[in-house]
Specification:
- The chain is mostly helical.
- It has 2 domains: about 90 residues, Rna Polymerase Sigma Factor, Chain: A; about 80 residues, Winged helix-like DNA-binding domain superfamily/Winged helix DNA-binding domain (Arc Repressor Mutant, subunit A, Orthogonal Bundle).
- About 75% of the residues lie in helices and about 0% in strands.
- It contains 10 helices and no strands.
- The chain is elongated, with a radius of gyration of 18 Å.
Length: about 190
């Protein structure tokens, strides 16, 4: 489904066709749930927030201007709904960043992320991403798994493009540290030399 297909289904939904909105939900439900799970950390909370996201999208669909992709608008709503829910649940974040080895290069991180993409290791990657802070997990998921551009992520989060770039760089370093502790050492060793 393309940006134009999304717009067609949005127009149909606004005209009263509920099945058209169901098509949009089917297209995006897995990624919205995944993003919610990254930030909320529990399946119950992620499911609840994902439902709230689609309810809000339905209620606010007439405000979508089409100046960005529908997915960007949807992910922005998802991100802010997760932040709202987390702020209501706690006032102080409970996760702390792991110590970061400053000698980790971007090339090492990129190389190991390419290997992790294999189906066999994807579950291990998911587990490592879950250990990141909520916002870091969200950014890594959008950038690497959903292949959103820095500009799109900036639109989703309301941050500047440079801020997104810095946060993703730091999140990758944290992710590498987690992966180095949890993945098979022979796999990690291949990318340290």
């Amino acid at each position: 489904m393309t940006h134009q297909d999304d717009q067609k289904y949005i127009t149909m939904t606004l005209a009263g066709n509920a099945n058209a909105f169901a098509t949009l939900i089917d297209r995006y439900k897995n990624m919205v749930y995944t993003l919610c799970l990254r930030m909320m950390k529990t399946t119950e909370d992620a499911e609840e927030v994902a439902q709230d996201v689609f309810l809000k999208v339905f209620q606010k669909l007439d405000t979508f201007k089409g100046t960005s992709k529908f997915s960007t608008w949807l992910y922005s709503i998802t991100y802010h709904k997760c932040l709202d829910t987390l702020s209501r649940k706690r006032k102080i974040p409970t996760h702390h960043a792991a110590e970061i080895n400053e000698e980790i290069t971007e090339e090492k991180v990129a190389s190991i992320l390419e290997v992790i993409e294999t189906r066999e290791l994807r579950d291990q990657l998911e587990g490592c991403i879950q250990q990141l802070r909520e916002e870091d997990a969200f950014l890594v998921t959008l950038y690497y798994l959903e292949e959103q551009s820095l500009e799109e992520i900036a639109t989703v989060t309301g941050m500047t493009k440079n801020n997104v770039k810095v946060k993703i760089f730091r999140a990758r370093k944290k992710l590498y540290t987690i992966m180095a502790r949890q993945l098979p050492q022979e796999l990690v060793a291949r990318y340290e030399n």
